[in-house]
């Protein structure tokens, strides 16, 4: 499913950069993804996954109301097996630099857990972070900054 999501995100980002005036509807997006070789079930799962982000962002579901800024996040065994130490460290880093709040972190973790893959690589986590933050209604985040997250070289520091 992550392959469908990253391909879709690239496609939509490319369309936005080219300043195509029309909005891409679901059927057009599904047709494009199908033409790219993705199966219908995978496309539907990816779109549902994105819809869940939108639902969380719109406040229709509020599973994280009790999170306080002074709280500490303890990861479950299942979360630790899905998110290795590098991935958890990246989420902590994002919080520490003020680019991610506790609610957004929980949305990211929830979305990662729903991916179904056994583990998630740091590079894939960065895509998930970018998708969640890119759909955030809590504040404007520059596209350049989001792109720098995904393409950040682990041996360099983020500026």
From TrEMBL:
It comes from the Bacteria. InterPro entries: Smg (IPR007456). Belongs to the Smg family. This is Protein Smg homolog. It comes from Candidatus Thioglobus autotrophicus. The gene is smg.
């Amino acid at each position: 499913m992550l392959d469908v999501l990253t391909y879709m995100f690239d496609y939509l980002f490319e369309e936005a950069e080219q300043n195509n005036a029309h909005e891409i509807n679901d059927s057009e997006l599904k047709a494009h993804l199908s033409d790219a070789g993705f199966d219908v079930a995978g496309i539907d799962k990816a779109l549902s996954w994105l819809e869940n982000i939108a639902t969380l962002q719109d406040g229709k579901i509020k599973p994280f109301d009790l999170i306080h800024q002074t709280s500490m996040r303890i990861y479950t065994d299942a979360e630790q097996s899905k998110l290795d130490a590098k991935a958890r460290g990246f989420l902590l880093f994002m919080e520490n630099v003020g680019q991610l709040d506790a609610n957004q972190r929980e949305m990211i973790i929830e979305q990662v857990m729903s991916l179904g893959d056994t583990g998630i690589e740091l590079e894939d986590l960065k895509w998930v972070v970018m998708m969640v933050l890119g759909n955030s209604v809590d504040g404007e985040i520059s596209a350049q900054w989001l792109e720098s997250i995904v393409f950040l070289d682990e041996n360099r520091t983020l500026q």
